Amino acid sequence: QVQLVESGGGLVQAGGSLRLSCAASGRTFSSYAMGWFRQAPGKEREFVACIRWSAGSTYYTDSVKGRFTISRDNAKNTVYLQMNSLKPEDTAVYYCAADLHGLGSLASYEYDYWGQGTQVTVSS
Fold it and tell me: Is residue 16 over pLDDT 70?
């Protein structure tokens, strides 16, 4: 079993920044690919970013490219999502997820474990 706990969400004004963290426990973290997804009211959960077991391999949805950065610290069993230049449309519950096969995916069903989510609200 793997437990994932997100933190760092909150309320921020447009143009501001937040850094989300996701701490993992229960199994070896370094072999997992990690992803961030988000779900806004009235919308389906969507892919935001992922990072493969190799920290140099990252992927982003088009709407966050150039603004968000995913990273990981395997020694701390933690993945981060640095969010800059936030926009109101970024408002959502953000979830981290772990893919045990280590390749990462843009599809939510490929992930094996999920956190409970952290709310990000961006005001105009």
Answer: yes
